[in-house]
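The freezer alarm interrupted the setup, so I double-checked each line after restarting. Inputs confirmed:
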Amino acid sequence: NAGVTQTPKFQVLKTGQSMTLQCAQDMNHEYMSWYRQDPGMGLRLIHYSVGAGITDQGEVPNGYNVSRSTTEDFPLRLLSAAPSQTSVYFCASRRGPGVGSPLHFGNGTRLTVT
Amino acid sequence: KNEVEQSPQNLTAQEGEFITINCSYSVGISALHWLQQHPGGGIVSLFMLSSGKKKHGRLIATINIQEKHSSLHITASHPRDSAVYICAAQGAQKLVFGQGTRLTINP
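Predicted 3D structure, all chains:
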């Protein structure tokens, strides 16, 4: 099993550019989520999904878009990159939203917006 | 006040010492997660618990639901335990994360 695969590992964008961070899991997990990690702030939820076709906003959704057309994939789109979006992004999945389901994280994407 | 508070924020100890990291939360939870992140590395799940105590090797996690408090203990600490330890409170749909505890174990 590959677990949670996140690409790319590093990305540099100019202000105003758009890009998509890819996240795929092969564990048939219902729940997938995107977080950003900034120094001193801990992990913050951007968007999450409890199954194919269902997405919802987290704590810091502005400037980001998601879709969940399949169980396996949960891409995160930056619509028009801003320097404030410079961060490390993590995708995570777990079996379902209920109890008894450990988290599985991707290896992260370090994004710099200049 | 953050919904999930960890203490201490930084901890330096000598190899072999017993380590305790604390996590207090103010939200209702269905589970509490402990995660480990090595410098420049990914995030690994250590424990998920909703009551009592769990043990894995030298790591022990406990939770007191009434007091809304969880602890992570490391026995016989080793330099390879140096990492950031993060607790996360799981609600119905979302998780709320603490800011992490940076642990450094010196040989």
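Quick read of the result. Chain A is about 0% helix and 50% strand.
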